[in-house]
Amino acid sequence: MWLIGVDAGGSKTVAWAIHGATPNAILAPPVVNVWGIGHAGPANVRTHGVELASRAILAAIQQAVAAALARVAGPALAAARSVDELFSNSDSFEISDEVSHRIPAVLASAQIHVGAAGAADPAWATALRARLLPDLCGGALMVGSDLDLVLAAVRSSPCDSSGHRTWDDRPTLEAVKGLFHPRSPLLDEGHWVAVIAGTGSVVCDRQRRIGGWGPLVGDAGSGFAVGRRALAAACAAEDGSGPCTLLRERLLADTGVASIREWLGHLPTWPAAIVPIADLARHVTAVAATDGVAAEILATEMGLLAEQIVAARRDGSAAAGPVSLALAGGLLTGHTAAVTVLLACVDQRLEQVGLPPFVRRARVCRPVFGALQLACAAAITG
User: Fold this and answer.
1) Which CATH class is domain 223-321+323-359?
2) Counting Cβ atoms within 10 Å, is residue 378 exposed (0-12), middle (13-18) or buried (19+)?
């Protein structure tokens, strides 16, 4: 049986295709003997539209299936030492005609789950699913929010064995191989607050969604929000209306241009400009320890995101049992400085409003694994 999980975000799309024993084969040992990983561009359905988002999702799915069929995406699953090794060996490749002809048959028999940025709204999810279905050859397809992937991924992994309160949650090869086991339920059903801060940002728990209004209205603590402030600070430093900052020098050195005005001249039109502006967040996190302007930007945006997290924590205060925090998105999984500032803001604000801290805090580094979990759950339940 084929399972395909897709994490469709604001900057990139990742698809993971695996093949193994059917979930109901109780007497047979679970086996995952073929895998493939595909990558494509941004697929936020709200900011990029249904057509562009669907193209990126389909491209990633086709690449993942082709990689599995051709076995050219890296070492065999059994021989790999970690999931990170699988991903590091998933570079783009040319899909041969022979492999291309076999893709429709795989799609027709696959259980597919797509978690897309912007698809928390049922209307957007329905529109995206309707556009994808004709190109998936009759495969079983579910479309939902990227937040669903974060919660599924973190609940399917055991707590950090070292006893740390904060840890990086990465799927193990054993977890991937055990996906098809009929007795592999989600291991942690406690109350979680999920946060995604990548190109955009959003916070949610089981009751409601907070933030996620999009880049024009305000995705607090997102890569775009941080990058936009960095660009504004660089502009102010260049024309003398603001303090000097290392951010201006870093932007110029990164692109080899002579001025910020020249940098802006190379910026694509909207919405293509969202991704390169969000990418500027890496400069902020890189110099926040030594540059006052960058430190203020990071503190401001992480403070705004912390307010949303605390609002969700307040919603969960009546939940039975402990409440935990799951962090995902490139800004939080790829930049320690951002996480450090955010968690400090969250703890400070929780203390101010008289709420207990989160008992556990996990950084979900591979949300696409949550998509595979949801696809497998759908296959088991029929």
Assistant:
1) alpha beta
2) middle
Residues in the chain: 382
Q: Model's pTM, two decimal places?
A: 0.81
Let me know: does 351 contact 382? Beta carbons within 8 Å.
no
Q: Tell me the per-residue pLDDT of 27-55, one tens digit each, with 9 for 90 and over.
A: 334 445 567 889 999 999 998 999 999 99
Angle in degrees, CA 43, 219, 15, rounded to 5? 25
DSSP string, 46-59: HHHHHHHHHHHHHH
Backbone region of residue 92 per phi and psi (left: phi > 0; alpha: psi in -120 to 50; beta: other values): beta
Q: Distance between CA 146 and CA 116 in Å, rounded? A: 5
Q: Which residues are 116's β-sheet partners?
A: 8, 145
Locate 55 and state its tokens.
């193209």
What are the pLDDT digits (tens) for 246-268? 999 999 998 899 999 999 999 99
196 bridge partner residues:
202, 328
DSSP output for 172-209: -HHHHHGGG-TT---S--SEEEEEEESSSEEEE-SS-E
Determine the Cα–Cα distance for residues 263 and 26; give it in Å rounded to an integer. Answer: 59
3-state helix, strand and coil shares in percent for the chain, rounded to the nearest 5 = 50, 15, 35
Q: Where are the domains of the chain?
A: 2-164+366-381, 223-321+323-359
- Measured CA to CA, the distance from residue 4 to residue 182 in angstroms comes to 18
- Largest Cα separation within the chain, whole Å, is 73
Residue 154: what residue type?
V
**Of the candidates 128, 159, 160, which has an alpha carbon nearest to the alpha carbon of residue 141?**
128
CATH number at 2-164+366-381 = 3.30.420.40
